[in-house]
Write a structure and sequence with these properties.
With 255 residues, the chain is an alpha/beta fold. It has eleven helices and ten strands. It is globular and about 55 Å long.
């Protein structure tokens, strides 16, 4: 599910479900949370870099699992892997760098709100498809994105379900640097190593101080979003969107 590599006090965590565009299923949620917990606990790890295998950074939550869920349980109560990952990234004490090697959809975009630095391939694109799925945003994106990119840019990203190019993401402030595809991970690691050369306790102190004014607001946004998702999921727009998704997936296999 993931590949980890450590060099020069930098732990690189690679999402490795390339056949599913690195979409999060319960197993990948658990593996990512565990890898981040391990990196936080290891005294010789200073910085974490998140990236994806294949042509995607992360295609969000695996929608193929949604129709199979137990509808008697509120979605956000059943999504234990997502809940644990959110707790993990909110509390992650060390610098977190994202190297967006390819498309980022849903959580593949909103996860960037928790990153301290974001590097994007010039061919990568981002999308928050929540409205097209008939649901509400997640991962505290209704708080984090306005903070990062401004209210109007955030409104467009979260409401339109349209693709955002790497250059648009950089201009908005969602990405820090845009690189050639072959350079995005090496560049991210190079900058991560510069951070990792500093005392870990100082890096942790800086992140703690920067994060402190926002933690309560992030958790409150996450709770509001979860309530709205539970309200909308299973509604007519969501049911139709999931049915269309499943049909589109099935069609090539039937031909």
């Amino acid at each position: 599910m993931i590949i980890t590599k450590t060099e020069n006090r930098v732990r690189t965590i690679t999402f490795d479900r390339a056949q599913a565009m690195n979409a999060f299923n319960e197993a990948l949620y658990a593996a990512t949370s565990e890898a981040l917990h391990d990196a936080a606990a290891e005294p010789d790890i200073a910085v974490v870099v998140l990236t994806g295998s294949g042509r995607a950074f992360c295609a969000g939550t695996d929608l193929q699992e949604m129709p199979e869920r137990d509808t008697s349980v509120p979605y956000t109560e059943g999504a234990r892997g997502f809940t644990r990952l959110m707790d993990t990234v909110i509390d992650f004490p060390k610098p977190m760098v994202c190297a967006v090697n390819g498309i980022g959809v849903g959580l593949g975009t909103t996860l960037l709100g928790f990153a301290d630095l974001v590097f994007m391939s010039e061919t990568a694109r981002l999308k928050c498809p929540f409205t097209s799925l008939g649901i509400a945003p997640e991962a505290a994106s209704t708080y984090l994105l306005p903070e990062l990119v401004g209210r109007q840019n955030a409104a467009w990203i979260l409401m339109s379900s349209q693709w955002i190019t790497a250059e648009e993401a950089r201009a908005m402030g969602l990405a820090w640097k845009v690189c050639a595809p072959e350079d995005v991970l090496p560049t991210a690691i190079r900058y991560a190593e510069q951070l990792a050369a500093q005392p870990i306790e100082s890096l942790v102190a800086v992140k703690k101080a920067m994060r402190a004014p926002h933690v309560d607001d992030i958790r409150a946004a996450l709770a509001r979003e979860n309530a709205l998702i539970d309200e909308l999921i299973g509604g007519p727009a969501n049911v139709k969107a999931l049915a269309d998704f499943v049909a589109a997936k099935a069609t090539p296999q039937e031909q």
